[in-house]
Design a protein that fits this description.
heterodimer; A: alpha+beta; four-stranded mixed sheet; elongated; B: Ubiquitin-like (UB roll)
Chain lengths: 170, 86
C-alpha cells in the first residue's frame, strides 16, 4: 500500500486514513485540500492539476521522512494528491499523520501541507469562465505558513544534489 | 579531435509547457555542460522560454539541483516553474 501517491482517481479521506491504521496508533490527524469556488474575486469554473509524478512521489516521501525526523512520536505519514480536472468541492489532496498519541500530529500535518506547497512538483491551473491562470503559492499575498520565513522563487533553499555540490537554485 | 557530446532528455510542465507547446525534447550538448549551459541552449532554441527562466527550478533525475551541476549522458532534466500543489 503506497503511502505517497499521485493519482488521477478521486481521493477519499477514509481510504487514506485506512492506510495508517495499526494497533499502535491512537490518533490520526488529517488535512484535506478542497477545490474552492473563487480565487481573488474571480469565480472558478474548475481546476486542473498537472504533476511530474515520479518526482512528486519522491518529494512527498521526503516530507514524510522530514516529519518523522522532526517529530519522533509520529508513526506514519500518508499523502495522496490527485491530478487532472477537478470540480468545485472535490478533494485535491489528503494528508494523514498517525501516532500513538495526538500531541504532535497537528503540527506535523500543518508542516506537511506547507512543505508540499513549497517543494512538490505539482502545478495548479485555475480555469475561469473567461480565462485561465497557472497559480503558485508564491503568487499568494500571505500563506500563513507554519514554516519560519516565506520562500519566494528567487530564494529557494539550497539543495544538496546527487553530484555533491550545493548551490542556491536560482 | 571532435568534442565528445552527451544527450539529455528535457521535460517541461505547466505554463512553459503550454507556451512552448512541447512537453519534452532531447538536447545534445558538449560533455561537461552544466544545467546553466542547457538552459542557455534551450533559450536559444525556444526564445519563449526566456519568459520563465527567471523563476525556474531544475531537477536532474528527479532531484533538485543547482545551476552549476554538470550533466551526464542520459540524464533526465526537468524544468520546473513555481509549484502550486495542494
Amino acid at each position: 500500500m503506497k503511502l505517497f501517491e499521485v493519482t488521477a482517481e478521486p481521493v477519499s479521506v477514509d481510504e487514506v486514513m485506512g492506510r495508517l491504521v495499526h494497533p499502535s496508533v491512537g490518533g490520526i490527524a488529517t488535512f484535506v485540500g478542497v477545490v474552492r469556488g473563487e480565487s481573488g474575486g474571480c469565480p472558478t469554473d474548475h481546476l486542473e492539476y498537472e504533476a511530474y509524478p515520479e518526482m512528486a512521489e519522491r518529494e512527498l516521501r521526503r516530507i514524510g521522512d522530514e516529519i518523522r525526523e522532526r517529530w519522533p512520536s509520529i508513526r506514519d505519514v500518508a499523502i495522496v494528491h490527485r491530478t487532472g480536472r477537478l470540480e468545485i468541492g472535490e478533494t485535491i489532496v489528503v494528508i494523514a499523520v498517525s501516532s500513538a498519541h495526538r500531541e504532535e500530529t497537528f503540527e506535523a500535518t500543518h508542516y506537511a501541507i506547507d512543505r508540499l506547497k513549497e517543494i512538490v512538483p505539482i502545478w495548479k491551473k485555475e480555469v475561469y469562465v473567461d480565462g485561465q491562470e497557472w497559480k503558485s503559492e508564491a503568487s499568494r499575498p500571505s500563506s500563513g505558513t507554519a514554516l519560519t520565513g516565506n520562500l519566494t522563487p528567487d530564494d529557494q533553499p539550497a539543495e544538496l544534489d546527487a553530484r555533491g555540490t550545493e548551490e542556491i537554485v536560482s | 579531435m571532435a568534442e565528445k557530446q552527451i544527450n539529455v532528455k528535457v521535460k517541461f510542465f505547466a505554463a512553459p509547457r503550454e507556451a512552448l507547446d512541447m512537453d519534452r525534447t532531447e538536447v545534445q550538448l558538449p560533455e561537461g555542460s552544466t544545467v546553466r549551459n542547457l538552459i542557455e541552449h534551450l533559450e536559444e532554441e525556444h526564445p519563449l522560454l526566456k519568459n520563465y527562466t527567471r523563476f525556474l527550478n531544475v531537477a536532474v533525475n528527479r532531484a533538485y539541483v543547482g545551476m552549476q551541476t554538470e550533466l551526464e549522458d542520459g540524464d533526465e532534466v526537468a524544468c520546473l516553474p513555481p509549484v502550486g500543489g495542494g
